[in-house]
Amino acid sequence: MTAVVLIGAQWGDEGKGKITDYLAQQADVVVRYQGGNNAGHTVVVEKRTFKLHLIPSGILYPGTQCIIGNGVVIDPGVLVKELEYLRQQGISSNNLSISDCAHLVMPYHQKLDEMQENQRGANKIGTTKRGVGPAYADKAARTGIRMADLLDREIFSQLLARNLEEKNHLLAQVYGVEGFVFEEVLERYLSYAEKLRSLVTDTSLAINQAINEGKRVLFEGAQGTLLDLDHGTYPYVTSSYPTAGGACIGAGVGPTKISSVLGVAKAYVTRVGEGPFPTELTGWEGEHIRQRGFEFGTTTGRPRRCGWQDAVILRYAVRVSGLDGLILTKLDVLDQMETLRICTGYRYRGSMLNEFPHSLQVLAQCEPVYEEMPGWQQDISEAREYGELPVKAKDYIIRMEELAGVPVKLVAVGPGRHQTIIKEPIFS
Fold first, then answer.
1. CA distance 10 to 163
2. Residue 298 and residue 385: Cα distance in Å, rounded?
């Protein structure tokens, strides 16, 4: 397998950053293919913690080429700060490339995100207010600005003037707030252009050349399956495509180039933001998981909603992304639980649902049907081989494989690189 897509199999925050970092040591190229700085990856390396938002987790390996693909929307100010943050940590960005087709997040996108979310009131989506949704909206409306445009002062000036005329009018007339001054935005963004210019290129060409040469390419998704714009719990979703199909569009490769698709899932489930969550725990068990798993958003710091594992969601992720296998993270968070539960189906108005419903009205009324399993109640964070795990922990993994219909290939028992157990090899 030379081209592997890594996606989130739940509502995001599954630990993809740690897994991408772990697999990047075997990869030649790591590609981020969608999302923006509304996502965050936390990577722990020898007691050092790195928090990344736009740059692929593979940046910590000097020999790994890292690419921000055309499907990502980029806030250049955030990217410049992230590059400086890495430089201060002694991490070079010489191995980073940015797609010239990637769209920009502009200041008016951030302001519109904030205004729109505030106006929704009780119907808020729970966005990060980073401007990602409005940036994708402009992309679809064909009024967006791309990295290639930013590098040409004349073209960027024309596009910015056109957009500011429209956005300032919208901000003033609809939301009653001040707009933006053309000259201030122009000079700020042109300063970003000079700092990023040397990194911008045709990344689709580079990715396809790498695959054709037999190099190992890892495609890194942000968010998760149930936040996908088409296949998630709409409208409580992101504005891009975290499912596996998004990798082809967001990186500029054909589907025949993909060798394998893997889904990252926690040993339990978390969700940030609004929307129904069938297995959510609101009592002491949910708080226990939140504290042990440090379930707080990398980007916003918001506490994550926590719940039992949901096999209905896993089967759905397997189906819509064609998963070959799962990577199970944070198994150690459940070390102290006496009894564990796995949702095997939903009960809805007296009927059993074995597949994930698209209607939020239906999902909100679904009651989880659980299987109970005994916990292992011992510290597994020092396990390095699958055989070292307690029998009850392995029973839990096996039952997840049976319910999801695909094998678990890696198991993470802590945040560190070394706390990753190989059950089946990923690259071959």
1. 36
2. 29
153-172 burial, b at 16+ Cβ within 10 Å, e below that, comes to eeebeebbeebbeebbebbe
Sequence-distant (≥ 6) Cβ neighbours of residue 239 within 8 angstroms: 132, 133, 135, 136, 137, 229
Q: Which active-site residues does the annotation give?
A: 13, 41
The one-letter amino acid code at 16 reads: K
Between CA 185 and CA 193 the distance in angstroms is 12
Report yes or no: 31 and 251 within 8 Å, Cβ to Cβ: yes
- C-alpha pair distances (Å), 329 with each of 9, 301, 323, 396, 421: 11, 20, 16, 13, 10
**pTM surpassing 0.70?**
yes
What Cα–Cα distance (Å) separates residue 423 from each residue in 259, 333, 361? Answer: 19, 19, 39
Quote the CA–CA distance of 234 and 99 in Å, as a whole number: 28
Q: Report pLDDT digits (tens) over 96-142.
A: 999 999 999 999 999 999 999 888 887 788 788 899 999 999 999 99
- Between CA 280 and CA 229 the distance in angstroms is 22
Beta bridge partners of 422: 410
> CA 248, 252, 256, 258 torsion: positive or negative?
negative
- DSSP result, 262-311: EEEEESSEEE-SSS--TTB--SHHHHHHHHHTT-B-TTT-PBPEEE-EEH
Tokens of 2: 């030379």
Write out pLDDT tens, residues 298-344.
767 889 999 999 999 999 999 999 999 999 999 999 999 999 999 99
DSSP states of 171-230? HHHHH------HHHHHHHHHHHHHHHGGGEE-HHHHHHHHHHTT--EEEE--S-GGG-TT
